[in-house]
């Protein structure tokens, strides 16, 4: 172990930054043994130096001036924990330009600007490590980028957002409506005051883009693949899914089908007692299939202060020890021409779950079945619970009842065509729910 110390700066001392500082200060001997050099926290850049923090930093570490890092040539590595895209992009570029290797957890920034940032880092002879950007404490970036490098990845199926998984777990276990489960997630700190990016599927989609680039060398844009969150799910759908032997998870899927790449982030029915169905609370899970290794499985806490700090500090150790400098130039991400074309959504195929709200009158089920059949969609099962009798025999209004249909495997294009006809069918009332079913 070298007697010299590597000076480290943290830019952004929020929840994760505080966790990183705790690890650096409390476990310095362990980190020195594993990196080969002692790491010294020299600067921590914050917006408000007067804010109370759950850590006692050494005198002189805290600063509100980024220039204290940029102009300090003794600082060799910067931990970039600034959220969003702007000014996070400018800050990361300035750190590279100032001669710092960078460790970041910002998946939104890498998803939007990663090609520019990686290219500039390589031009400057610097590195960017980003394990903490996906799945928190699960080492999935290193797994796909390094440990499974002998494989062509053929499938990734993942729960990548702990907030949505917690909400879905609450809805099932506590029989809670979506709004109540979301409120509980916010009270426990799993969901932000504005949870939009979590619950509408954007966060999971950004992470899926990074995994897809690592696994396939393809950079999809967020608008190029289907994305739907859980913010429109009703408790009724989770109940019907359970009746059919399934649970609903927000699944992020990236896989090769007939030599082309299929991506989507969608609420999906997953059969009970399968590994993904058994991931509860704020945990994440990733299933990866390689053509050499076969099926592999990774699960753990996907967010939170210390799980994310664990990933950040692991990147620091790799950077300080020199491992990142060896692996960074050879990552598929943002480097090579895309070897796989994107598969059109119309060609996606799976089984589907439909829930209709229908007027309880003769021939409605037959009309729906006729439309599905004419569009090559075969019905596997039907649930229609008995409707209450009319209170008055002469009543003109008819009760609205749910009708649930599970299909056999079919094409998304056929589903789209059927839905266009279903839109014109009298007796159907919104909302209509259509969700894929995982194999």
Structure description:
This protein is α/β, with parallel strands linked by helices and 439 residues long. The protein has three domains: 5-133, Rossmann fold; 149-300, 2-Layer Sandwich (Dihydrodipicolinate Reductase, domain 2); 345-437, Alpha-Beta Plaits (2-Layer Sandwich), CATH 3.30.70.260. Helix content is 35%, strand content 26%. It contains 15 helices and 16 strands. The protein has helices spanning 15-26, 28-35, 67-70, 88-97, 107-124, 140-147, 162-173, 178-187, 196-199, 202-216, 235-243, 305-321, 323-327, 364-374, 412-422, and strands at residues 5-11, 38-45, 62-63, 75-80, 101-104, 128-129, 153-159, 246-257, 260-271, 283-290, 294-301, 349-359, 379-383, 400-407, 410-411, 428-437. The strands form three sheets. Strands 3-2-1-4-5-6 form a six-stranded parallel sheet, sandwiched between helices. Strands 9-8-7-10-11 form a five-stranded antiparallel sheet. The longest helix is centred in the N-terminal third of the chain and has 18 residues, at 107-124. It starts with a strand and ends with a strand.
Radius of gyration: 25 Å
Strand content: 25-35%
Tell me the helix content: 25-40%
Number of strands: 16
Sum this structure up briefly.
This protein is an alpha/beta fold.
Core attributes:
five-stranded antiparallel beta sheet; 16 strands; single chain; six-stranded parallel beta sheet; elongated; about 25% strand; about 35% helix; alpha/beta; about 450 residues
